[in-house]
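Replying to the earlier thread about multi-chain prediction with a worked example.

Input:
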Amino acid sequence: DTAVSQTPKYLVTQMGNDKSIKCEQNLGHDTMYWYKQDSKKFLKIMFSYNNKELIINETVPNRFSPKSPDKAHLNLHINSLELGDSAVYFCASSQDLLAGAPDTQYFGPGTRLTVL
Amino acid sequence: GQNIDQPTEMTATEGAIVQINCTYQTSGFNGLFWYQQHAGEAPTFLSYNVLDGLEEKGRFSSFLSRSKGYSYLLLKELQMKDSASYLCAVRDPSRGYSSASKIIFGSGTRLSIRP
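Result:
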């Protein structure tokens, strides 16, 4: 059973198009995240949702819009794609921080987005 | 500001020991993680330190000194499969809710193991 799954794994599209990436976790976690990993391998957080509520929204262009229909799903919609959006996008989830237990993040396999 | 520094690349020999250092400057601190990421794959959790000292887990150990803003990951008895990037990540509670405050990742250290 896959803990955190993302679709699609690869996405190649033209500039200006609109695309979505889906993420689902079956771990029962309360918090989900979207990260962007660029060619230099920096993993930067974009958004975080806790129980369907947006709690972290980094300085991300408003062309990026996350949607959480329930706490097991966090989708990412991108409008008007640009060349600079090309990267690997990782979804992750974690349980809330508890005493003595770190809020370890479990990552999905990633979606490699290429904008032509 | 916030900064996490790690060496970009390291090389070590199979069977040897390697230490990957991480220094951080953040507004707040509430835990440090090490993740392993093989090429083309997702990061996976290795270790977590919140108090000073050494945490040992099999061939991997992680050390933390909060006063120095310093951590290291020690890998013993290196195997070829240990060739990967190792990401240091710090939880900074000043940047969000306590339970889901932002975790800031370093750029990672790419470790190559030679036979």
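The mean pLDDT of chain B is 91.

Feel free to reuse this layout for your own posts.
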